[in-house]
From TrEMBL, chain A:
<dbReference type="GO" id="GO:0005654">
    <property type="term" value="C:nucleoplasm"/>
</dbReference>
<dbReference type="Pfam" id="PF05238">
    <property type="entry name" value="CENP-N"/>
</dbReference>
<keyword id="KW-0158">Chromosome</keyword>
<dbReference type="GO" id="GO:0034080">
    <property type="term" value="P:CENP-A containing chromatin assembly"/>
</dbReference>
<protein>
    <submittedName>
        <fullName>Centromere protein N</fullName>
    </submittedName>
</protein>
<dbReference type="GO" id="GO:0000775">
    <property type="term" value="C:chromosome, centromeric region"/>
</dbReference>
<dbReference type="GO" id="GO:0007059">
    <property type="term" value="P:chromosome segregation"/>
</dbReference>
<keyword id="KW-0539">Nucleus</keyword>
<keyword id="KW-0137">Centromere</keyword>
From TrEMBL, chain B:
<keyword id="KW-0158">Chromosome</keyword>
<dbReference type="InterPro" id="IPR025204">
    <property type="entry name" value="CENP-L"/>
</dbReference>
<dbReference type="Pfam" id="PF13092">
    <property type="entry name" value="CENP-L"/>
</dbReference>
<comment type="similarity">
    <text>Belongs to the CENP-L/IML3 family.</text>
</comment>
<keyword id="KW-0539">Nucleus</keyword>
<dbReference type="GO" id="GO:0000775">
    <property type="term" value="C:chromosome, centromeric region"/>
</dbReference>
<protein>
    <recommendedName>
        <fullName>Centromere protein L</fullName>
    </recommendedName>
</protein>
<keyword id="KW-0137">Centromere</keyword>
<dbReference type="GO" id="GO:0005634">
    <property type="term" value="C:nucleus"/>
</dbReference>
Length: 345, 413
């Protein structure tokens, strides 16, 4: 085992919590039954690392096998690190009939053509997602397994999720993806987050959505804190209304956990009390960032509690509607420019 | 300040007998005033020393000794609040109109780089300080700073060695404390001179020849303090109400307890309230012409579940034009006067309102429902928790004036 493999293994054992180590190693299935029995998971991490290193030496495992182990761990825990979403555009005729084997071959061959030394591993997960682990090298050096990029693609959808793409690797990766999926272009979908499951659910709308109905019935409040019966009675109607509109905008139940939304505003300042600023021609440039442990939950609560006026402004409801969390907002141009349309750049 | 009765007891950082309760950003001390039984066991020596205005003006003192002294001493001192408004003396609740930050401020920038020692100034700017308020110090002499340095370093060394039964050779860290007076940082003669404190010590595993490093620094200051209040202080008291510290928390509490024991004062945390943060936002924006602020960043926290944090960063040129548009029409004709004219609270309110309304127009979310927790620009940053950073030496005096006022208001006496 060379140095890289050892370092990778050490780093991996440090990252994986002890409880999960056993299951991960079993899934890996590169250890014999006897070796698996000999691992005592109550020992310290350091001792475990040493043991594992010895076993891997015995089995003559290489860095490629360790990379497999890392991939298994990441697939089990996709909610670490930052994920960025890209969208494939303009499908060609046979884009929808691309199936797994074809995609794998095409992707591997295209990427290897573009870069000499690159190590690719593709795995299909149970839920129709294709996971790709790429270790990048260049003309002079071997692939660097310590800084891999993970790509997740759901076949039949135009979305691709990436971790930490650098500016050098992005164009090569984009090229390979576009060619192997039979689309014509790829662009930044302006959505990023820490939890892969959350942004995936947001994009594929896999959360409880609420649709406007002709005969609205108040949705059941989850935490009923009865403070004053008179106030409750008086406010029942408007509270139910706000709650309904908040849920229409953001969804009901448990919402996908986004961490932030950024709006770059370049609209004109308009305020009837301030003539000087209203007559200005230049836009009032500012950047607004909303941050929270669960952004959609906060926004929904602010709408239902009245902090945000209902009906919810399209700027905020675009987050779940369009599945984006980075927006550049400009004025619509001259004319009835009292409305703001989110435009993407 | 009843806590002083027990000189050798470890004092909490705030005077636990007086609990300021904040209502609408004004402390209402009369709701929970000191009824501590400690007052009845006043040490006669400290009774003489204690300033006679340490009780709320509207309360009848429970201590018979104090009652006696009061009747003897006719011209008793007034509390800070009462000197701002006569009504407070006669009623139980202080005059609400009296206890407030100044509604208008002069905005002259001061080039103090010539007047102040550049090393001291370098220490002051570009670092983030944690603020506290301090009640007036009894018998603090600027001439005895050397002796204070020795006393404080002995105190710290003693406290650090507490619990060690055997003298450990070599492994103990010695602390060198230096007090110094910063001259030139101040405008009026009423203000006491700023005092700078520095603690140097060797890191634990340092070599023999390694120099001592600065591990803790702090300062006590009073810039443009209310002259009425300062004149009413008895002769032996020095008012340095603003305390800034940077460094390990245990050293900060040691320094504070030494001060409390030696000068019979009281420390307390100083939060920078909403009005103060808005003043800073306006003051910094006002300086954009002289020194670019690069951007004005405000962080608001909304009380939803889970809490939502909104960072609102505005481009410097645009926010400067907005500020200019809300100013009152200028009565000054000359340009220098124009630059130095005062800012009123209404202008600040209109400015913040303009920013909030632009936000509301887009997001239909009223920022007033939340709380402004941080304001920052290239000239400095201020957080609600009481952390301040001044990045430009020209505006140090204006910022410190504002903070001195906050400290004087927050002091319970």
């Amino acid at each position: 085992m060379d140095n890289t493999a050892k370092r990778l293994l050490q780093r991996l054992v440090r990252r994986i919590p002890s409880q999960m180590l056993k299951t991960t190693l079993d899934k890996w299935s590169r250890l014999t039954a006897a070796q698996r029995q000999s691992m005592d998971y109550t020992e310290s991490k350091w001792a475990l690392t040493e043991k594992l290193l010895a076993i891997c030496e015995e089995n003559e495992l290489t860095v490629k096998h360790i990379a497999e182990l890392e991939m298994i761990h990441v697939i089990e825990n996709p909610n670490l690190g930052m994920w960025y979403v890209f969208q494939l555009m303009d499908p060609q005729d046979d884009a929808h009939s691309v199936e797994l084997t074809q995609f794998k071959e095409q992707f591997k061959s295209h990427l290897s053509e573009l870069i000499r030394h690159v190590s690719i591993k593709i795995k299909k997960h149970t839920d129709e997602a294709v996971w790709i682990r790429i270790a990048w090298g260049d003309t002079f050096s071997r692939p660097n397994h310590l800084k891999p990029t993970y790509v997740v693609h759901y076949l039949q959808t135009p979305y691709v999720f990436l971790t930490s793409p650098t500016s050098k690797q992005k164009p090569l990766l984009s090229q390979a993806l576009v060619l192997s999926t039979r689309y014509q272009a790829i662009k930044d979908a302006n959505l990023s987050g820490r939890k892969l499951t959350a942004i995936r659910d947001l994009l594929m709308k896999q959360y409880l959505q609420v649709f406007p109905t002709k005969f609205p019935s108040p949705l059941a409040e989850r935490n009923c804190v009865v403070s004053n019966l008179h106030i409750e009675k008086e406010q029942a109607g408007s509270a139910a209304n706000r709650h309904q509109m908040a849920c229409e905008a953001f969804g009901d139940g448990i919402l996908p956990q986004l961490q932030s939304a950024v709006y770059k505003l370049e609209t004109k300042f308009r305020d009837h009390t301030n003539k000087t600023m209203t007559e200005r021609d230049e836009p009032f440039k500012c950047v607004v960032k909303f941050a929270s442990t669960n952004l959609l939950e906060s926004l929904r609560h602010s709408a239902s509690s009245g902090v945000a006026s209902t009906p919810v402004t399209p700027l905020l409801s675009s987050v779940p509607l369009k599945g984006k969390n980075y927006f550049v907002i400009t004025d619509n141009g001259p004319g009835p420019s009292s409305q703001m349309k989110p435009s993407q750049k | 300040m009843c806590g002083s009765a027990y000189k050798n007891r470890p004092q909490p950082n705030y005077c636990s007998c007086v609990v300021p309760v904040w209502v609408n950003e004004r402390p209402v001390r009369e709701i929970l005033t000191c009824q501590s039984p400690r007052t009845t066991r006043t040490h006669p020596r400290t009774a003489r020393r204690r300033p006679p205005w340490s009780f709320s003006v509207a309360r009848t003192p429970t201590d018979s000794i104090m009652a006696q002294r009061r009747s003897k001493n006719k011209s008793y001192r007034q509390s800070y609040r009462s000197c701002l408004g006569a009504a407070s003396r006669l009623s139980h609740t202080p005059g609400w109109t009296a206890r407030r930050l100044n509604t208008s401020r002069r905005t002259k920038s001061h080039n103090i780089t010539e007047k102040v020692n550049p090393e001291d100034l370098a220490l002051l700017v570009k670092t983030e300080w944690q603020l506290s308020y301090v009640t007036p110090l009894y018998q603090f002499r600027h001439t005895q700073l050397r002796s204070y340095s020795r006393q404080l370093s002995a105190f710290i060394t003693a406290e650090k060695q507490q619990g060690l039964a055997v003298e450990v050779e070599g492994a103990q860290t010695s602390f060198r404390v230096s007090f110094s007076a910063v001259q030139g940082l101040g405008e009026t003669d009423d203000d006491a001179e700023t005092v700078l404190l520095q603690i140097h010590s060797k890191p634990v595993f340092a070599g023999k020849d390694e120099a001592q490093k600065l591990v803790w620094s702090g300062w006590l200051t009073c810039i443009n303090g209310n002259p009425e209040y300062l004149h009413l202080l008895p002769k032996d008291f020095t008012c340095l109400p603003l305390f800034g510290s940077r460094g390990a928390e245990n050293l900060t509490s040691l320094v504070k307890s030494w001060f409390q024991q030696t000068f019979d004062c009281c420390f307390g945390p100083l939060e920078i309230n909403q009005t103060c943060l808005q003043w800073l936002a306006a003051l910094w924006t006002n300086c954009h012409i002289e020194s670019s602020i690069q951007h004005l960043k405000m962080i608001w926290t909304l009380p939803v579940e889970p809490p939502l944090q909104i960072t609102y960063t505005v481009n410097s040129q645009d926010v400067w034009e907005l500020w200019n548009s809300v100013r009152n029409p200028s009565l000054e004709s000359r340009e220098e006067e124009e630059a130095a004219r005062s800012i009123d609270i209404e202008e600040v309110t209109r400015f913040m309102q303009g920013l909030k309304s632009h936000f509301y127009r887009h997001f239909r979310l009223d920022l007033s429902a939340g709380r402004l927790s941080q304001v920052s620009s290239a000239l400095g940053s201020a957080k609600f928790s009481g952390r301040i950073k001044m990045s430009n030496s020209r505006y140090v005096l204006t910022t410190l004036t504002l903070l001195t006022e906050c400290a004087l208001l927050k002091m319970p006496i």
